[in-house]
Amino acid sequence: MAAVPDITLHTFFRSSSAGRLRIALGLKNLPYKSIFVNLTSGEQFTGAYKALNPSQTVPLFVHNTGSHSISIGQSFAALEYLEEAFPTYTPLLPPSNDLEGRAYVRTLANIIVSDTQPVTSLRLLKRVERLGADRLLWAREMTVIGLSAYEAIVKHKAGIYSYGNQITLADACLTTLVWNAYLYGVDVQEFPTVERIFKRMSEEPAVIRAHWKNQDDCTE
């Protein structure tokens, strides 16, 4: 019998970046230990955490292989690592012979991971506010831009999920963005394909467990 993977996730309940990893780990049925990093109180800026993750962000994914520990401080890199390190667990990318499909899923995911989430992160929103702007309005507008791009692409190939009827990394990333969209007051009904996929994803037990309201460090 294969050994149970030794995985630790440094996380914060409100972090959508950490949330997408919680979803992926749950979908793959990979057990993990949570270490909570309070972004609101600034715990990510302590010397101890900076030594672990120089980016001073969450998530920080750590896999103890037995011979050494692999630390990954970027969520999408960690998502792809899960695909490569645990190929016998539920795949979240199309098969390796479907190069177009894999690129399509990565494109959708990166609309969120690269284009949208970074400009709505807590770190950036605090800076926007210090410059005198309305941080909620900023977050709402940036999220609408991201969801508009996602909707324009996904409506052509979506099935039950973003790529046919298989849950992929794109769906995990989309789900956490929509969590935030509702918090920002975005009318998600303006994006019918996105809304339909999100509702289906929200029924998944792994997604329910990963929801920010169901995290042990949730204070809301």
TrEMBL record:
<dbReference type="GO" id="GO:0016034">
    <property type="term" value="F:maleylacetoacetate isomerase activity"/>
</dbReference>
<dbReference type="InterPro" id="IPR040079">
    <property type="entry name" value="Glutathione_S-Trfase"/>
</dbReference>
<dbReference type="InterPro" id="IPR036249">
    <property type="entry name" value="Thioredoxin-like_sf"/>
</dbReference>
<dbReference type="InterPro" id="IPR036282">
    <property type="entry name" value="Glutathione-S-Trfase_C_sf"/>
</dbReference>
<dbReference type="GO" id="GO:0005739">
    <property type="term" value="C:mitochondrion"/>
</dbReference>
<feature type="domain" description="GST N-terminal">
    <location>
        <begin position="5"/>
        <end position="90"/>
    </location>
</feature>
<dbReference type="InterPro" id="IPR005955">
    <property type="entry name" value="GST_Zeta"/>
</dbReference>
<protein>
    <recommendedName>
        <fullName>Maleylacetoacetate isomerase</fullName>
    </recommendedName>
</protein>
<comment type="similarity">
    <text>Belongs to the GST superfamily. Zeta family.</text>
</comment>
<dbReference type="GO" id="GO:0006559">
    <property type="term" value="P:L-phenylalanine catabolic process"/>
</dbReference>
<feature type="domain" description="GST C-terminal">
    <location>
        <begin position="98"/>
        <end position="220"/>
    </location>
</feature>
<dbReference type="GO" id="GO:0004364">
    <property type="term" value="F:glutathione transferase activity"/>
</dbReference>
<dbReference type="InterPro" id="IPR010987">
    <property type="entry name" value="Glutathione-S-Trfase_C-like"/>
</dbReference>
<dbReference type="InterPro" id="IPR004045">
    <property type="entry name" value="Glutathione_S-Trfase_N"/>
</dbReference>
<dbReference type="GO" id="GO:0006749">
    <property type="term" value="P:glutathione metabolic process"/>
</dbReference>
<dbReference type="Pfam" id="PF13409">
    <property type="entry name" value="GST_N_2"/>
</dbReference>
